[in-house]
Amino acid sequence: MPPASPPPAPPPGPAPPRPGPNDAPAPPRLGPNDAPAPPRPGPNAPPRPALRRLGAAALATAALGVAHEATARALAGPDALPRLLSFDGSAGSWLALGVALALFGARLSLYLAAPPALAALGTLALFEALGPRPAERSSDRR
Amino acid sequence: MSERRLLRGLAALAAALVALAAAPRWLAGRGARAVFAGERGALLARARGVASRVEAGVGAGAFHTGSSRFDGEWSFTTRQMALLGLSQVALEHPEARAELLPAVRRAADELVRPEALAFGAEAWAGEGGLESLEGGRGHAYLGYLNLALSMLRAIDPATPHAALSDRLTEALARRLDASPYGVFETYPGETYPPDVAMSIGSLGLYDRATGADHAASIGRAVGHFRARFVERGSGYLLQSVDARTGAPRGPPRGSGTAIAAYALAFADARFASELGASLRRAGLVTRLGFGAIREYPAGVEGGGDVDSGPVLFGVSVSATGFALASARLAGDEDAFVALARTARLFGVPREAGGALRHASGGPLGDAILLAMMSAGPLRAGPREPRPPR
To answer: Which of B33, B78, B274, B388 minimizes the number of CB atoms within 10 Å of its CB?
Structure first.
């Protein structure tokens, strides 16, 4: 019986195209000292960046609202704000002016700045939630 | 990838713009339409806040303008506006009359005290306004008192101040009739058409409350106002004039025009409506749903003072607050709500125990806002304009 011979090798296919002079260089291969690829996020993974920013903005807005409310209540009773009309340059007047400016700064922020900021961050967070995560994208490529 | 990033950025920008256009106007406009519609709860909360101010006392010591005259004026105006606003709410909601009447009566009692009018006597070298009614002159600030007393006659016909109201009304009518140009001095050498408008309005309201007839005095004075004191271009009212010559002494102002429009509505609804329409046409500035009134018409430069309050970006606190009245009287809900949003943003209202007060306006701000936001009851009907004699 003739000795068994290995099966014939398949005919060679066309060689991959060689990189041309204008092609981008190939990405470097991972070496033994390179950092490993980031792990895929698990169920306990930290929230996405945009969602985290939205949460921080919402918390800041809520804190601003509480501070504004407390200041307004504190000033409403003794009618401290109208007394600014008699500003006389004393330390008390400066303090009252500072508190008033802080109050109106907080008020303008709450009414005019916070809603568009939250809406923009909310939209970014929504896009992030609906789209693939960065880690998933890198694994897909592999 | 870059397309996705661009799409994400555009969507975020669009969301921010939509939120900027919708959220501030909603946040600041809460309750404004209820006030415009005269809903009981909305008006009564404000009325209770003002009534509590009156009960707590609003003497000149409550103000710190640095000028005893202005402190006195502000205390006086606080009581006057409180009386007007509380009465208007009681007239619109008669079931609240019993609750609000004590504060109305207290405000009236305090308004007629010599110390409440001391700022005027001081300006007139010790001559008290109420002590010189017969054959007297000037003291046009008494028009504010008479508008309040005329309103008192309507809501509290048995008031002990009725006799004073009669005498004061006749004295002011005589001064109007005797004046060559339908105006007379508030203080020596100082004549303010908006102050005289209070006197004119007080005659109309007195007539409505008592059945008297001062139509001739009202018509003559309004004729002079139309002919001399309304700027042609803007329709704003001159703030200061010379009583002897009728010549202007200062520019037209939004604050004076707006408070005159409120007062004149009790005497001549047509003229008051024209002034109010001028404010909204030439003075109303709206941004993001917030409205404010220019203190000076286009082309006129000027700063703020005790009449206008602070003037920022050309608009004034007083003109904006006073213009609420003519917007409500004209049924212009959009303008009213826009102005009310600004009042809410900068007034910092706080409600506690069913009473609403504003943290930034103090007693005067609360009283003015109530009177302006509840304007409407006892307004006059239109009169045909008459040429001045």
So the answer is: B33
Reduce the DSSP state of residue B110 to 3 states and report it. helix
What distance in Å separates the CA atoms of residue A81 and residue A72, rounded to the nearest whole number?
A: 9
CA-based nearest residue in chain A for residue B11: A123
Q: Which residue has the higher pLDDT, A133 or B161?
A: B161
Instruction: Using the structure block, give the residue that is written with the tokens 């005919």.
Output: A11
Inter-CA distances, B378 with B68, B154, B222, B262, Å: 34, 9, 19, 12
Strand partners, B294: B315
List pLDDT tens digits, range B138-155: 999 999 999 999 999 999
Q: What is the pTM of this model?
A: 0.84
Compute the distance between CA of residue B216 and CA of residue B386 in angstroms, rounded to an integer.
9
Q: Residues 6 or more apart from B42 whose CB is under 8 A from it? A: B31, B34, B35
Q: Give the CA angle between residues A40, A41, A45 to the nearest 5°.
A: 155
Between CA B191 and CA B207 the distance in angstroms is 25
State whether A119 and B27 contact (CB < 8 Å).
no
Beta bridge partners of A57: none
CA neighbours closer than 13 Å in the CB half-sphere of residue B332: 20
